[in-house]
Amino acid sequence: MSDLPKPEESLSKLDHEPPRTGWMDAPVDIRKGMYCYSANPKSLNYTGFPHAREWNPIEDDWKLPENWQEILHRGFRERLDRFRSVKVFMDICVRCGACADKCHFFIGTGDPKNMPVLRAELLRSVYRNDFTLMGKILGKLNGGRPMTENVLKEWWYYLFQCSECRRCSVFCPYGIDTAEITIFGRELLNLLGLNIDWIATPVANCYRTGNHLGIQPHAFKDMLDFFVEDIEEVVGVKVEPEYNKKGADILFITPSGDVFADPGTYTAMGYMLLFHYLKERYGFDITWSTYASEGGNFGFFTSHETMKRLNSKMYAEAKRLGVKWILGGECGHMWRVIHQYMDTMNGPTDFMETPVNPITGTVFENAKSTKMVHIMEFLADLIKHDKLELNPRRNDHLKVTFHDSCNPARGMGLLDEPRYVINNVCNNFYEMPANTIREQTFCCGSGSGLNAGEDMELRLMGSLPRANAVKYVHEKHGVNMLSCVCAIDRAALPTMTEYWTPEVDVTGVCELVANALVIPGEHDRPTDLRGEDLPGWAEPEREETDAE
Amino acid sequence: MRLEGLLEKHKRVIVNKWFDAVVHTYPADTARFLKSQKDPFANPVGRTTFKGLDGAYDQLCGEMETEMLAASLDPIIRIRAIQDFTPTQAAGFVFLLKNIIRETVGDQLREKEGLEELMALDARVDTVGLLAFDIFMRCREKVYQLKANETRNRVFSAFHRAGLVADTPEDGPETNKTIE
Ligand code: SF4
Ligand code: SF4
Predict the structure, then answer these.
(1) Beta bridge mates, A508
(2) Nearest-Cα residue of chain A relative to residue B149
(3) Residue span of the structural domain in which A172 resides
(4) How far is A356 from A347, CA to CA, in rounded Å?
(5) Of all atoms in ligand 1, which is nearest to the CA of residue A175?
(6) Domain end residue (candidates: A161, A194, A227)
(7) DSSP element (H, E) containing A402
């Protein structure tokens, strides 16, 4: 019972403003529900990360290597030379505060250290102390502080309370991207073996078997075959996906979350139906790969080298199969990596062709270098050219809103395509308020490897601004379906809605598309892909038949 | 004047003070933001808190309908239940109202009657406070349930049953093994 506060303490804390210690001196208080478990050493070893060991964030002794300060200092120095952006971001912030209240983690937790400017200041204070002349002379007066164990713990705690969503950067007059600072800081923490397991183990699995879960190729195929049966039951048509087909026109890559976790599985069924439709109607030639079975790239949350390694597998597979280009599914950070990093890491890809939609002839000039096209661009192009027979009435029981996932929205500017697609497959679409969508979208609260179970409080707080806007459209328009184009969203948002707005369900956009798509040879479809009855669907159809 | 009339007359002042007190259970920088940002989408904690307190106050001074009270308190407590507060701090903000009312209208009450009315009001505040604790517990239970369910889903029981998941080997990749 010793951790219970005395009654007078509790109440006095209620009555008065909490004391204001200078943020730099306040010791970090690592709270349950706010952090993720430390990385399993065997996962770190597998991918060759240094200083793998068992350690516990809430214990005093983190079992740091003896020369940890030296390692960190050297790592900082090397990266300042390597990443000009970070050096600039360290120097130019004028602490104007424009970003301060824009982070969903600050808004949700109310913890000032989650203000982006302070998050960056955690690193910047050490930078000033160690790497600037003024800092060396003036020390604390210049906002510098030496790297101590407490500072290190604070880094760790708050760098894993940033989902690298970049919302703050939209508001910074200097374009400072705190996400880049977090990426940089986490890379430094990795030098000391201080990653979290929800990142380290998926990375090891992905490196070994090609996806985060460690599902082996035959099992991956088994799962898709299982969807084939499900689709046959619902639609009455047997789809025949291709696997690892050499010489196929196009390789399809999507996050493995679509294959193993609900409701992503219905999105995966959506892709399969779409490809079947296109094959029947237009001879579309696309293959899945059981080796490049992961679009997501958790390497992005460890180090640039690891990100590069995992990304390269997709291109190695494209080369092996000899495809013309890659079609990418509904994923978040896969697209951020492709759009922002891939070209400099593993590109330019000279063994594929500039993607051309074989059905419409559209040349995807924007994908000239990476050779990878987003399924929303592809779908929007098909719909624009009237190549899909759609019956949006089949989604009439849904009132849909759309969550812009940070990565496709802010990371690559994919804003209008998903909306165009949704509006063509649904009759009831409602936008959330303007300051919560498009470039200003709020993160799901679980991005950048934070969607573990043990940090549930953090995730729920981080999701509050998003949930608050969902609640608004639910109350105002009766919205009951939250659509998104990201597998982490599909994993994280159902948990968010269950806590904040239980009346709203979550779907991928391709699930909506497949439900509206009229498949050649389909039987009566009184249910959706989830096997749920479409309200009022079977009845009027029958009445019409009777009347004839 | 009777307490009932005073509570109605001074509603704005009292609710504002109550809001102020609740907001100051947060760190100073945060409190400033919670008070000043009026856009409900940029500041869900501040605006939800204000709206909830306002509604709860009306019930407290009026019908005391449990459903309505819960509808006002739930959104506030749902937030505080996961933030960095002890249970007392998360749900106990209701009791702050006692002092605020005394401070604001105490000297306008008639001696004897006033005291009785205040005691009756205290009892109502206590009832609301207890309801707040019930809501708090409900929120915490939900959080635990979400943790448990997600963990269950995350190990993909179906896959495991089918023996489809391969774990990373204990001792690293075969090719990197060192000979001891
Ligand atoms: S908006 Fe930019 S310059 Fe202003 S405090 Fe934030 S990071 Fe610094
Ligand atoms: S990148 Fe996103 S999570 Fe990180 S500080 Fe900025 S707004 Fe917050």
Answers:
(1) A484
(2) A453
(3) 7-30+50-194
(4) 19
(5) 2
(6) A194
(7) strand A400-402
ipTM: 0.92
- Per the structure, how many domains does chain A have? 2
Are A66 and A212 members of one domain?
Answer: no
DSSP-assigned states of every residue in B85-124: --HHHHHGGGGHHHHHHHHHHGGGS-HHHHHHHHHHHHHH
CB contact under 8 A, A498 and B33: no
* Shared-domain flag, residues A217 and A186: no
Determine what percent of chain A is predicted with pLDDT higher than 90. 76
DSSP A422-464: HHHH-S-B-PPPGGGSGGGPPP-S-TTTT--STTHHHHHHHHH
Question: Is residue A1 assigned to a domain?
Answer: no
Token pair, residue A503, equals 């009346």
In single-letter form, the type of residue at position B96 comes to L
Cα A102 to averaged position of ligand 2 atoms, centre (Å) = 8
Tokens encoding A396: 């009439």
Q: How far apart are CA A399 and CA A394, in angstroms?
A: 12
Residue B167 has pLDDT above 60, yes or no: yes
Query: Is some CB atom of chain A closer than 8 A to the CB atom of B161?
Result: no
Of the candidates A220, A203, A204, A312, the residue with the CA atom closest to the CA atom of residue A258: A220
Tokens of A153: 């713990």
Structure token pair of residue A525: 């479809």
pLDDT tens figures, B3-19: 899 999 999 999 999 99
Residues A481, A395: Cα–Cα separation, whole Å = 10
